[in-house]
Amino acid sequence: MVDHRDQGQANLTLLAVLLGFIVTGVWVWKRLSVETQDYIVDQAVPMATISLVAAGLLFISLRSLHRRRKKSRERARLLSLFERETVQDKRLDLAFTLLEVNAYRIDGLQSAVPALKQLFITTLQRALGDKQHRIRGMAASHLGALQDLSVVPLLVKALDDDHAYVRSCAALGLGRLRATEARERLKTAMEHDWDQTVRSRAREALERMRE
Length: 211
Hints:
78% of the residues lie in helices and 0% in strands. α5 packs parallel to α7 (164-177), α6 (152-158) runs antiparallel to α7 (164-177) and α7 (164-177) runs parallel beside α9. It is mainly α. The radius of gyration is 28 Å and the shape is elongated. The chain is built from 9 helices and no strands.
């Protein structure tokens, strides 16, 4: 457990060091000649600023590259596990995680899209009953991420599900697909569904179609 007294002491020490740097800097600056001060202001400061900006941009680029590589490795690992898994429930969990890690995009997942589509369709159709509403809903929303318009009728049907969570996820899936053929059905959900989340998701889906 962190001792708050030690933490407070460390903060005071850091503050003292910073104040020491500031005082020293002011002291040194006042003892420089006017010509040296002018040179620093006109030449050194701009150069230092440019160098800091360049270093910052380089750091951001390298960090972004590292994140992309890390994401790519994790995607490859999950994809390999998904392709080898035979237990339906574990395979479904891997499918959900795979798309979530990939930011709900199919880039790099094209080879698995048919299997993912079939798995989500089967889940949406067979995970019946109130207790499985969350699984049905996740299957509906993830179907939209696959960018396959053939699932639009199934998602439209899911807008009539007894559970509001499933209806809201179906609206989310249709929005991800930008399924303009479902526009009227989404308008009905936005205006008449008793659940606020469903209405909000339907409105968001319609807004995506206007982008």
